[in-house]
Amino acid sequence: MAEDLGFAENETLEERAFDYARTVALSDGVFAIALTLLVLNITVPSLAPSQHSELGRRLLDHRSEFVSYAISFAVISIFWIRHHVFFRGLEKIDMRLTVLNLAYLAFVAFVPYPTRLLGLYGDQPASVVLYASTLGILAGLAGLARAHAQHANLLTPVGLREIDSREHWLITPAIFLVSIPVAFISPTAAEFLWLLILVPQVGQRIWRLQSGPRAPK
Predict the structure, then answer these.
(1) Which backbone phi and psi does 155 adopt, to 5 degrees?
(2) Is residue 5 part of a domain?
(3) Rounded to whole angstroms, what are the CA distances from 99 to 62, 71, 96, 178?
(4) CB distance 101 to 23 below 8 Å
(5) What's the number of domains the chain is made of?
């Protein structure tokens, strides 16, 4: 199966580098397009000539769209940084990691749609649930990719020190999962709950400062 799709076990270093470069290029392209499409979710007010003085107020009417844009841009940026750090620590890629990465990118490309719904219907549980489900699945796929890379010995020594899948890969999808039932009580509270995805990053920094550099494995 792997050989039929161009992933032979006896690949040369040049072939591995080519596969890696194409995968990274595709991934960065999908992230870039998804980030760009987010701004298209912000509606431009349509005003008659006699209503131009109302532009400021009408822009405020679309503040939920600006908020959803900011949330999604921040979240996708965090996912891109994690993806970048993860791939920087890879020595090679295999077929399973490629499939996981493609599934991951499918949800990255999908994020602008629930972002649009969140901007238009942020007070409705259904829009919050769809958004949380999308980001939860996205985070889960990222965790699976990291776990597979460790299990299949795809990481460099530097990658093994950088990656933190054993401690943190379940936290982000868990946050989005927990926010789903919260959304039926208060959509706003569920959205604030998403800010907890920043906590593992802060905690990880503090832990590294206290424990010092890890010894190579």
Answers:
(1) -100, 150
(2) no
(3) 38, 27, 5, 27
(4) yes
(5) 1
